[in-house]
Design a protein that fits this description.
Strand order of the largest sheet: 6-5-4-3-2-1-9-8-7
Low-confidence stretches: 9-42
Radius of gyration: 18 Å
Structural class: alpha+beta
Helix content: 10-25%
Order of helices and strands: HHEEEEEEHHEEE
Oligomer: single chain
Shape: globular
Strand content: 35-45%
Length: 173
């Protein structure tokens, strides 16, 4: 039995959190979640930073590091802080999607709904995968600028329906 096994759960979590924060602070210059073998085998894997800005009455924006693996039909999206701490994880299959944020986990048959809950906007998931492959596909209301994809940069804007939104992706090289 480990020395932390006898601690109360909140105390143990606090201790482990401090230990993890200290370790990640030392590595913050190169923090990135490790690439899983299954992601490498799948072939479709991207990582970097992304930012979402949503205009309107309930303006909302955020930026985070990310890893995106798989395809529009089955895959995963991990959002993390600059120190490498997980903010959210979204996993999906054709039949099911799960969003984990901290200790909370929600399931749905709708990937779109969970992505909207996470970002505040309906992200065009299928189009995003196509855009990252360099395909200029159309997505309802969205316009993607792929002109800097060779430099690892993608910008997509949604003008309709309201609220307007902008997605910015900077891929790691």
């Amino acid at each position: 039995m480990s020395s932390t096994a006898g601690m109360a759960a909140p105390s143990r979590r606090r201790w482990l959190g401090l230990l993890a924060a200290g370790g990640t602070a030392l590595l913050s210059g190169c923090a990135q979640p490790p690439r899983a073998a299954s992601d490498a085998q799948r072939g479709d894997f991207w990582s970097g930073r992304l930012a979402v800005q949503v205009e309107g009455d309930a303006a909302r924006s955020f930026s985070a590091g990310f890893t995106l693996a798989g395809s529009a039909s089955a895959g995963s999206l991990l959002l993390y802080t600059p120190l490498g701490n997980a903010l959210a994880e979204l996993r999906w299959t054709p039949q099911h999607a799960v969003l984990k944020q901290g200790d909370r986990e929600r399931s749905s048959t709708s990937l779109q709904q969970l992505a909207r809950d996470l970002t505040g906007v309906d992200l065009p998931i299928e189009a995003l995968f196509a855009w990252l492959h360099g395909d200029a596909v159309q997505a309802a209301g969205w316009q993607a600028d792929l002109s800097r994809l060779q430099d690892g940069r993608l910008v997509a804007s949604r003008h309709a329906p309201e609220p307007q939104a902008t997605l910015r992706v900077v891929l790691e090289r």
